[in-house]
Design goal:
Layout: H1 12-31, H2 38-61, H3 63-68, H4 73-94, H5 97-113, H6 124-144, H7 147-167, H8 174-189, E1 221-230, E2 236-237, E3 240-241, H9 242-250, H10 273-279, E4 293-298, H11 302-315, E5 320-328, H12 342-352, H13 376-383, E6 392-393, E7 404-405, H14 407-410, E8 418-423, E9 443-446, H15 461-464, H16 467-473, H17 475-483, H18 492-515, H19 521-524, H20 530-548, E10 561-563, H21 575-587
Parallel strand pairs: 1-4, 1-5, 5-8, 8-9
Antiparallel strand pairs: 2-3, 6-7, 9-10
Length: 606
């Protein structure tokens, strides 16, 4: 006979399953909320979280009685997995690293306690739950930077798929095989060499870029960012593309010291949810400011992209600036034959992962929203787009306005401060935004329209991501890739010397910008923000390296651009900038790869 709650006749099991049903309904609703309904999500998240806290506490206090009433171990694991998903989903909405750490705590406890082990090879449903859990835990570890755990989980994931294929029908696991191929491909591209040092902003490793007191009437802080990339057959895992992943990491603080290495999992799942939340704060660095809030959009429809952009602009604080990173081709109609490409892989993951992690914005039936400013030149760009693509392709349904983002789409949002990074072969058309703003001059960093020929034979855009994005996130590694220097040829002390050298030059350039009388206010107002300042300084380095790279020397199509322009003292032809390239090339023994004036001499101090 089922155990009953003291004081009434309701069986414990009925109370428990009533809480489970209530939690499931609320979880389904919050999972489907689009990103642009931010206020509604914030309010609803804490309601859902409260229900799961009650559910978790109830099953802890009555575990033995519930087990006697028929509660299975995998059902406990399912609740813990939902809580971990809630934490990760809230991290993706808020960029609060504490929630990411909490998600790791719960997932790791599920792994160590083997909640899905019982009946794993007897029940196909439990096998799929275990695989889904591992796939989601992989994503959390990837974003958190726990690479050792990532590789451990990948091995376990692949082994489990092979064992399940022998136990059940092999056709039941074809989709999971695609997921395994995706993460393996991702890790082959995002190698250990690319992660020798954290991509996040580190107070320990990054230079103290004290820009002094820039001559600006105001100082803006990066409070929000929109990150999106779309390429056929691009490297990705679930809904996180390689380029977006690197930019996501680049716009976060790296907790310093031992705080980041400790694990809150010692609390395990025996503590109530609220207690675990408090304990995991030890995994974070309280001395750091909050991360900029980021919206990572995976292959959004144009109407949804504009809805998210409008929402964030509307909520942007008076001291804030929005970073907009778009990485996509200006060409359309390409079809990839790879089984991992475009729609086939997307459909697979929608079926098995539900893609809760990235909160995909669902397609709407009307994709025709097109915003056009009154400026004639920008309107002409949109009108001529069918014959000559002049934007970014975020779809595969032909050369129509419904699948392209044009410069004219962004102009109405320049009523708020924007820091725009365009990584595309059609990036140059976006310079038309400069001068057409509706209130706030925009800062633009534009990639080269042509990728320079690389000496490294094993590198191209598809397997390793964008070279321009690598320069903005890992400039020393980008320099090595361009110069044909492989990871196997790299010595740690040489890489350390190069990092210190680049930091020294970036400090000098920051001081030059801060004291310049000709620096445009668009740039001076962002110099006190560490993330934007670092991106700008890395852009200066990238532009100089590509301008002096011998195979494309003086070829404008292979050089990035920025608008408004920077002071003459920091252009690629400036001696101070050319010296930096020469000294970096000398460190790696790659001076023959660059064309430099004969009158530039090396400084003995370096």
């Amino acid at each position: 006979m089922s155990q009953q709650i003291s004081g009434n006749n309701i069986p414990l099991s009925e109370v428990y399953w009533s809480l489970v049903n209530k939690a499931d309904k609320k979880f389904s609703k919050i999972r489907d909320l689009p990103f642009y309904e931010r206020t509604r999500y914030e309010n609803y998240f804490f309601k859902v979280f409260k229900v799961y806290t009650q559910l978790w506490k109830f099953q802890q206090e009555n575990r033995q009685k519930l087990v006697e009433a028929g509660l299975k171990r995998w059902e406990i694991g399912e609740i813990a997995s939902r809580i971990a998903q809630l934490y990760y989903g809230h991290y993706m909405r808020t960029s609060d690293a504490g929630y990411l750490s909490e998600s790791y705590v719960f997932y790791e406890a599920i792994l160590t306690r083997e909640y899905f082990k019982e009946g794993l090879f007897q029940d196909l449903n439990i096998a799929n739950k275990q695989l889904r859990f591992l796939a989601r835990f992989l994503m959390v570890c990837l974003v958190l930077g726990r690479r050792e755990m990532v590789h451990q989980l990948v091995d376990q994931f692949k082994r489990l798929i092979d064992e399940c294929k022998r136990t059940f029908q092999e056709t039941d696991f074809k989709e999971w095989k695609v997921v395994a191929q995706e993460i393996v491909r991702f890790l082959k591209s995002d190698t250990a060499f690319m992660n020798i040092r954290p991509l996040r902003y580190s107070l320990v490793l990054d230079p103290n870029l004290d820009a002094g007191t820039p001559r600006a009437s105001r100082s803006l802080r990066l409070t929000d960012a929109i990150l999106s990339s779309y390429y056929y057959n691009e490297v990705k895992y679930s809904e996180l593309t390689l380029d977006s992943f690197r930019m996501l990491q680049c716009l976060e603080w790296e907790p310093s010291g031992s705080l980041y290495q400790s694990t809150g999992a010692k609390m395990g799942l025996n503590a109530p949810v609220g207690v675990s939340r408090i304990n995991s704060q030890s995994m974070n660095d309280p001395t750091l400011p909050p991360n900029p809030r980021k919206a990572v959009l995976y292959r959004p429809s144009i109407t949804h992209f504009l809805a998210v952009l409008a929402t964030i602009c509307e909520e942007l604080p008076s001291h804030g600036i929005l970073l907009l990173y778009l990485s996509a081709s200006g060409k359309n109609g390409q079809i990839s034959s790879s089984p991992l490409s475009a729609r086939s892989a997307t459909n697979v993951e929608e079926n098995i992962l539900r893609d809760f992690e990235s909160h995909t914005i669902k397609q709407e039936t009307d994709p025709s929203l097109q915003i056009t400013p009154s400026g004639q030149s920008l309107r002409q760009i949109s009108e001529d787009a069918v014959s000559t693509p002049c934007g970014l392709s975020f779809g595969s349904h032909g050369l129509t306005g419904s699948s392209y983002i044009y410069p004219s789409d962004l102009v109405p949002f320049t009523r708020k401060p924007l820091f725009i990074i365009i990584d595309s072969d059609s990036s140059t058309v976006f310079k038309n935004i400069c001068g057409a703003e509706k209130g706030e001059p925009a800062a633009l960093l534009l990639s080269p329209s042509h990728t320079p020929p690389l000496i490294s034979a094993d590198f191209s855009r598809q397997p390793s991501g964008s070279l321009f994005t690598i320069f903005l996130t890992s400039p020393v590694q980008a320099f090595c890739l361009l110069s044909g220097i492989s990871a196997s040829d790299m010595e740690t002390d040489i890489l350390t010397k190069a990092e210190k050298l680049l930091s020294s030059f970036m400090n000098e350039w920051a001081s030059t910008l801060a004291t310049s009388d000709t620096l445009h206010p668009v740039w001076s107002q962002i110099l006190k923000d560490p993330f934007l300042r670092r991106l700008l300084l890395r852009f200066i380095f990238c532009r100089a390296v590509l301008a002096l790279y011998t195979p494309v020397f003086n070829n404008k199509q292979n050089q990035p651009e920025c608008f408004p322009s920077l002071p003459e003292s920091l252009v690629p032809t400036a001696p101070a900038v050319q010296s930096a390239v020469l000294l970096m090339a000398n460190v790696f023994g790659a001076t023959s790869k660059f064309t430099l004036p004969q009158d530039i001499t090396m400084l003995e101090s370096f």
